[in-house]
């Protein structure tokens, strides 16, 4: 399978987690787009969806799924989203599509976070993918300076405004060996809205589209680390 086929396979598997009669949390990105397209077959089972981005909301509406404001929803069972990188502890980098803040909020509300990726997103250590940081515009220079002190190379993402009206700084050169610590430290910088590290709120279920089919890894699986290590090793060899 090529990368697109692996994404489609993971997205199709995720449809099994859609709960009848529930409101579904839906993320953002190319793999999630495949998931939304597959919701056509089950859209009559659900009440609607909460979306992490304007783009995903519009895609959901086009196939006839009502989209709710998160403030009008007390809770929901399942949130389905992708990742730009994910490690063996199911910690991840997100924000390549500039929707990281809303994604983090929706993930926090969901009882179960189902992450869907192709195997190229599996890594032993986070940081090869530039780490997105959402920043209010007046703080871009200050935040960039603080990120340099941490050893990163901040790059302003040009021609991008988030759905919240903010800017994105992509931080290159970080080897994120303690994701929770990095998440806390960057979030404490004045002017940062949030960082695209999901270390405190990890995935509960990881669905991986791979060359050998779809693999499902749960956070509480006893064999998770061994299973993930084999997948990540194979993904690293294919890069």
- The average pLDDT is 93
Based on the structure given, which CATH architecture of the largest domain is correct? 3-Layer(aba) Sandwich
Distance between the termini: 15 Å
H-E string: HEHEHEEEHEEHEEHEEEEH
What is the global morphology? globular
Question: What does the radius of gyration come to?
Answer: 17 Å
Strand content: 25-35%
Number of domains: 2
Give a description of the structure.
31% of the residues lie in helices and 25% in strands. It contains 7 helices and 13 strands. It has a 6-stranded mixed sheet, with helices on both faces. The chain has a 4-stranded antiparallel sheet with strand order 8-9-7-10, sandwiched between helices. It has a 3-stranded antiparallel sheet with strand order 4-5-11, with helices on one face. Strand 12 and strand 13 form a beta hairpin. The longest helix is centred in the last third of the chain and has 15 residues, at 224-238. 47% of the residues are buried.
